[in-house]
């Protein structure tokens, strides 16, 4: 069993053992030691004694072996040419950044132009849609009207009729929704709207508590998502 690779004292480290064969065919167990510290003056050290157990006989016993270790360089330098004492770090000259700054400013300018163009396009599209799309026009009118006023209810009726290209009644609401499946999730609110509208205009009922603005905003949002 060869000794394990490990630190050996303050100065040495034992490497992994290896087997070698010489020119006469004899096998040797080689142990390498690495010097990991350098003394300030010539010093005598000892490779540690090693005992290696064997299967077929007595253990192999290696006694301690003295070695000498010295510093790599003398403590005092010659003081000639580049052989000087330790000097401070040399300051590094600043790299030229004018070209980088110009490219950075150009990139910021281009980004600003793109953002302004996008904002102009987005605002123009919303402005056009608010005047072109039926429910967007109705929502613009609803925001300025009282939910209990006849004008508010009529503006939503006109938006439904404009989107269908014909007059839509409560009885034809389902067919209109079949043509516009993106509004199908609002079927219950639309049926309530037509029911309250009939009570208001034909049965003399009041519908002031109906959430007309909520329905108008939901229709505007569904219309906007459909046209994106």
Mean pLDDT: 85
Helix content: 40-55%
The Cα radius of gyration reads 46 Å
Major sheet size, sense and barrel closure: 3 strands, antiparallel
Low-confidence stretches: none
Number of strands: 9
Side by side, the strands of the main sheet go: 1-2-5
How many individual domains?
2
Q: What does the overall shape look like?
A: elongated
Oligomer: single chain
Strand content: 5-15%
Output the helix-strand order.
EEEEEEEEEHHHHHH
Structural class: alpha+beta
Helix run count: 6
Distance, first to last CA: 78 Å
Outline of this structure?
With about 230 residues, this protein is of the alpha+beta class.
Give descriptors for this structure.
three-stranded antiparallel beta sheet; about 230 residues; 6 helices; alpha+beta
Describe this structure in words.
- With 228 residues, the chain is of the alpha+beta class.
- Helices cover 43% and strands 14% of the residues.
- The strands form 4 sheets. The chain has a 3-stranded antiparallel beta sheet with strand order 1-2-5, with no helix packed on it.
- β3 and β4 form a beta hairpin.
- α2 runs antiparallel to α3 and α2 (134-143) packs antiparallel against α6 (212-226).
Describe the secondary-structure layout:
Layout: E1 6-8, E2 12-14, E3 18-21, E4 27-30, E5 33-35, E6 43-47, E7 50-52, E8 60-62, E9 65-69, H1 98-132, H2 134-143, H3 150-164, H4 173-179, H5 187-202, H6 212-226
Helix pairs in contact: 1-2, 2-3, 2-6
